[in-house]
Amino acid sequence: MKAWLMDNEVSDQRLDHNSGVELDEKALGDIGVLYYHLDNLDDVNTLAKERHYRNRDEIEVSPKSMGSEEAYMAKLKIFFDEHLHEDEEIRYVLDGRGFFDVRDRADRWVRVAVEKNDLLILPAGIYHRFTTDSSDYIRALRLFQDEPKWVAFNRPADDKTSRTEYLRAIEA
Ligand SMILES: CSCCC(=O)/C(O)=C/O
Ligand SMILES: [Fe+2]
Which GO terms describe its cellular component (predicted)? Predict the structure, then answer.
């Protein structure tokens, strides 16, 4: 697992933007973000069952899967808008690479690099965003507790119940 505080350079979102300050799994856990490396789909299924996930879909984010470079860039822009969800978000990488960016307690961006067999759990109410890296390719499972849906609330969404509950949950 590699995670770091982002630099503040405004350039291609698919570059590393590594400030040089690396973070470990404990630092991620501190803001409710859980990381697992699972080589085996059975382990993903067990975890999903334990957390009462009943649905999933598969997504490929690449220029090919989106049909054109323009459609791909438009999709990336949507994923990269800072947002939160009312439900916990689980993503399991089947192939390729990408970055999930999450806000820390000080509202700084923490970049979590994910690759094949990485699984990330983002709590409901955490502000975050996603981008592919410069390989422009990721294939992932999106797991849902209920019906497959991807409802994102762009920031500001501080009035959402999930946001209030998240902030309460990570209180020191
Ligand atoms: C690689 S999964 C695509 C991005 C996504 O599902 C998400 O929820 C971003 O916040
Ligand atoms: Fe999201």
Answer: cytoplasm; nucleus
**pLDDT value for 8:** 87
Q: What is the pLDDT of residues 135-153, one digit of tens each?
A: 999 999 999 988 766 789 9
3-state class (DSSP) for residue 111: strand
Domain ranges of the chain: 2-169
Q: State whether residue 163 is helix, strand or coil.
A: helix
Atom of ligand 1 nearest to the CA of 93: 1
The answer to ipTM > 0.90 is yes
Residues 47 and 116 sit within 8 Å (Cβ to Cβ): no
For residue 172, the model assigns a pLDDT of 67
Is CATH 2.60.120.10 the classification given to domain 2-169? Answer: yes
Q: Which ligand is nearest to the CA of 59?
A: 1
The per-residue pLDDT for 150 is 74
Question: Are the C-beta atoms of residues 110 and 4 closer than 8 Å to each other?
Answer: yes
The ligand 1 atom at the shortest distance from the C-alpha of residue 132 is 1
